[in-house]
Structure formats: C-alpha cells, structure tokens
Design goal:
hpI Integrase, Chain A, Double Stranded RNA Binding Domain, 4-stranded antiparallel sheet, 15 helices, alpha+beta, DNA polymerase, domain 1, 9 strands, about 400 residues
C-alpha cells in the first residue's frame, strides 16, 4: 500500500455498489483512510491499548485535515498510547456527555455547503425552534423512544410554537406536519450517533409519524380533462400565455415549480430528451421528460435566456400563483396547489403501473442508484416511461384520453 499523500487520497474511491473501503498507509502503522460509498473520506487510526485491546478512532475528515496534518495527529495519538493512555476510550467517555443540541450542531456544521442552502436553513429552523427547546439538554445516550414520541406529541400540540423576532414577522408553528418533519430529521441526525458508536440503536426508528393530509382533490383523468378545458378557456380569455405554458409543463413533466420557472434554454436538451437542470434539491441533474412536455417548450419563442421570462425585468416569470388561482377556479379544483400538479404526475405514473423506483427517477428524487444513473444522461427506460406518461396526460388535457 502506498503512502497516503494528497495525490493518492484524491484518487481514492470505492467501486460502484461496494461498501466502504479502507486504505492503510505503508509508512505509519495503523494510519489509514476510510472512503465511504458517498465519497466522504476520513482519516482513521487503529492501535492496541495497554491492555492489548484493539481500538479504532476517527482523526478527522479529509478537507478539514490534510494528509500531512492527519499524519501528525496520528503520531501524537500514538505517543499518548505509548505513554499508557487510551485516547479512543477518553474520546468515547467525553462523548457520552454529548447532548442532543451538540449532535444537532454537528449535523448543521457537517452539512453546511453540502446540501442546498434552503434545505440547510429549514433544518436549522426545525432544530432551533423545536428540537433544541424541547430536547436540547438531554444527553444522546439517555434518549429513549418514549422521549421521541413525547417530542412528536409536544410539537404537534404547539408547545414549541412562539413569535419570531420578538413577536414580529409571523410565528413558528407546531402541528402534525411540522412534528413529522422535525422528528424525521432528528432520526436522520441520530443515525450519525449510531454510525459513530455513540449509541447502539436509533431511538427515533420505528416511531409512528402522523400521515400527510389527503391531497385535494385526488387525481383522476376526469379532473385532468377539466384542467385542460380551463387552460383552453384561459387562452381565449387572454390569460398570460407564459403562465399557461408553465402550468402545462409542470403537469406534463412532474418538475418542481422553481425548476420550471427558472429554466433556461441552455438547460433544454431536445435531442437527449431531458432538462439539464443546474440546481435541484438533489444537485445537478439531467431530468428525463416526455415528448409531450418538450412540445410545450418547442412552441415557445426564444426571446430571453429564460424559457419563461418576466416582462418587467431580466429575470424569470414570477406571477404564476395568480394565474393558477384563476385556472384552478375555472377547473373547479378546490384546494389544488401548483405543487399538487407534481403529485398528480406521480399518481398518474402509479396508476399506469410504473414502479416506485421509476417514478422517483422521473421526479428527480435522491434515491440511491437512481439519481446517479441519470446524472449525465437519462437512460432509455426512464425516457420511455416519461414519454408514455406525458402522452397519456396530454391526451387527457386535450379531452381525448380516458
């Protein structure tokens, strides 16, 4: 095994589909590099303490530490071992007093810059407004499933709700939706403690979470026909063509609202039948879209860098909620939101017997093995599925479907 230099560490990776891999340094015994399937790299040290017990500890993440800094830290720790102390045991003892607040702070620090800024801010808000006030002082090792269930109950009841900014600018709210998302996020954070050996079992695992309220109205091809009629009436009534086309594309592609409104012509690849989105919740993607969705784009004028440009600025169109309110009222889709069109797309795909994995790929969800597969070019199976779904939905919009 070669020496763990920067050049070697940069080249290290795990083979596709394999578990984590450790590379050991050939100069310093016990000094190694752990590479996870996600690509995360950490320096580790393995040694035997004064009682002959094998220990393994993480020195730090690559990026936070250079190989040279990690090597110096490994030598320092080995010096402590030679003097009769056990650094790994001492580290574990200090972590036994770690609180939920500490663990949450570590989560935010580790993910700052690694996930979308909006997602990070949402995590921070749930931590600061709900989790810390109710559980922050509890030690991680003392947390039980009963504590997590009480957290769920308390957030649902609004016990952590309070005014923002001294009573100005709205309130932080509780409720079942906030409780479900907060406890789900806490479960993810606690998995880090399991991974690091701080606790043996995640106390949030298996907790029954409140279900989402039923989407209104539920999907049906009859209602799709009503939506299509409302869009045609909108054309006659001279509602904004940009908005009407955006609504059609949202429905026929399953994309998120900002993915459509912020779409630039350079991101539209008609030949590869995909949208090469530079920024999504799961990172850059080549999102497969059906030909019926691409037909909406093909008919639009290229008068700006944006596919759906603003008429008042150099940015993209922003008035979609107002037009959707008029369209959904015409279609008698009471309670239907723009995001509901994405759910309708998924419901149509499920009704057409496509698998959950395929639907996840079409929606751009970060499902292991799916997003990576179409990060550059979507595969033929996903494109075929997108074609079939968009064709069926377009026929229903035009009044010729089931």
């Amino acid at each position: 095994m070669p020496k763990l230099t920067k050049q070697f560490v940069d080249r290290c990776k795990t083979p596709a589909g394999s578990a984590e891999k450790t590379f050991w340094d050939n100069d310093l015994s016990g000094f190694g590099l752990r590479v996870r399937p996600s690509g995360r790299k950490s320096f580790i040290l393995q040694y035997r303490n004064a009682h002959g017990r094998e220990r393994k500890m993480t020195l730090g993440r690559y990026g936070a530490l250079t190989p040279q800094e990690a090597r110096l830290e490994a030598k320092r720790v080995l010096g402590q071992v030679a003097a009769g102390t056990d650094p790994a045991e001492e580290k574990q003892a200090s972590r036994s007093a770690e609180t939920i607040a500490d663990l949450c702070d570590e989560h935010l620090e580790a993910n700052n810059g690694r996930i979308k800024a909006s997602t990070w801010k949402m995590d921070e808000s749930r931590i600061e407004q709900h989790i810390k006030p109710l559980l922050g002082t509890r030690t991680v090792q003392s947390l039980t499933p009963k504590d997590v269930e009480k957290l769920l109950t308390d957030i649902t009841a609004g016990k952590s709700a309070k005014p923002k900014n001294g009573g100005r600018g709205g309130r932080t709210k509780g409720g079942p939706g906030v409780a479900r998302r907060s406890v789900s996020m806490l479960g993810t954070i606690l998995e880090r403690a399991v991974r690091d050996g701080l606790i043996e079992r995640n106390p949030a695992r298996g907790i029954a979470l409140p279900k989402d309220k039923p989407r209104k109205p539920p999907f049906s091809f009859r209602l799709v026909g009503q939506l299509g009629e409302a869009l045609r009436e909108g054309k006659v009534a001279r509602l904004n063509d940009c908005a009407l086309d955006a609504i059609s594309l949202l429905f026929l592609s399953g994309c998120r609202r900002q993915e459509v409104l912020g779409l630039r012509w350079e991101e539209v690849d008609f030949e590869a039948q995909c949208l090469r989105l530079a920024d999504t919740k799961s990172g850059p993607q080549a999102r497969p879209v059906g030909r019926a969705a691409l037909d909406v784009l093909a008919k639009r004028e290229r008068e700006s860098n944006f596919v759906f440009p603003s008429t008042k600025s150099s940015g993209h169109y922003v008035g979609l909620p107002r037009i959707w309110s008029a369209v959904s009222a015409r279609a008698q889709l009471n309670g239907m939101t723009l995001h509901g069109l994405r759910h309708w797309y998924a419901s149509a795909a499920a009704e057409m017997n496509f698998s959950e994995l395929t639907i996840a790929g079409l929606l751009g969800h970060s499902v292991r093995g799916v997003t990576a597969r179409y990060a550059t070019t979507p595969d033929s199976a996903l494109k075929a599925a997108a074609n079939e779904i968009s064709k069926k939905l377009a026929e229903a919009l035009n009044g010729s479907g089931s």
